[in-house]
Write a structure and sequence with these properties.
- The chain is mainly alpha-helical.
- The chain folds into two domains: 2-104; 122-343, no CATH class.
- The protein has helices spanning 2-26, 35-50, 58-80, 84-92, 96-104, 122-146, 154-184, 203-210, 213-235, 237-264, 271-293, 301-325, 328-343; strands spanning 107-109, 188-190.
- The radius of gyration is 21 Å and the shape is globular.
- It is found in: Membrane.
- Keywords: Acyltransferase, Lipid metabolism, Membrane, Transferase, Transmembrane, Transmembrane helix.
- Belongs to the wax synthase family.
Length: 348
Amino acid sequence: MEDVKELKTFINIWFIAISSMCYCYFIPAKISYGVPRLLSLLPIIALFCILPLSISTVHLVFPTFFFLVWLANFKLLLFAFNRGPLGLSSKQNLPIVTFISIALFPINPKENYNKLSTDAFPFLKQILFVIKVAILTKIIVPIYQYYNLDNIHWSFMVILYFTHMYIAFELGFIFTALLVKFVHGFEFEIDPHFNEPYLATSVQDFWGHRWNLMTSCILRAMVYNPVRSICTPTLGKLRGQMLAIFCTFVVSGLMHELMYFYMIRVPPTWEVTWFFVLHGAWTACEVAVKKAFNGRFRLHRAVSWPLTLVFLIVTGWMFFEQPIKNSVDVKIKNETLFMAKYAFKIHL
């Protein structure tokens, strides 16, 4: 009964979100950009921050937080100054359904669509999709079912949780893309969220080119570009870029800390923020070292790939420390087993 109530609340939240975006389309979009438009959008931004607090199921809280509190609110803040994907859409005078889709989901209007060049290796991607589903259903779910996670080494726990998080995110975004394509046909380019992050050869490659690319795009427009343009005249090109990278990671860390608050509902302990502070400093140093060598020296993939994975695993405990300490991982495990029983027809 409680699960049905949660699902009804989740549906109501998204009905409110869609209604709010109708308001943004008809009212703030017609107001001159800048402070006047920002003031007209602030009630919606505040509302989006409140909505996820009415649900507690982790698998419902996360997409609500990510789509509304993070992506939609950042898009609205950029839209206030006629920037970002919504700023572009206002210039193109798009229909209301398109505006709402861009605002609430990680998509962009498709430009210069070429069906033949959209995906160079469709068969390979289909194989990888099947492999990921198999890993989730045939490896991760049985581990959750038959093993006591308290007896598993922390490094394996990090690998397990990162793998589960990655596959679950990617599958969720694929289903979101299918929903958008069902509504709009093939008029939109669905932003890829992941580019096989397990193949990353550096921390910069992992965060900048392979992991959660839509968030990277929004953070680039929201934090990186403004900080770099402001600081470069004073600090110089390289230092301005390094500071912009670091600030972007700090903001990402704070948003993840906020995400944990929505999922755990306890005061923050800042481990995940320090995780992103560390990765921000490391990435900034990577950029500086690469520019210093100017392409004259580069580690072979056979060396840089395992080193990157080791760094991610060793520092990964900081990312998962707070959820594990507050038994959120147990809650996620139970929710995963519940969904596996009914969605994947696994007889547990």
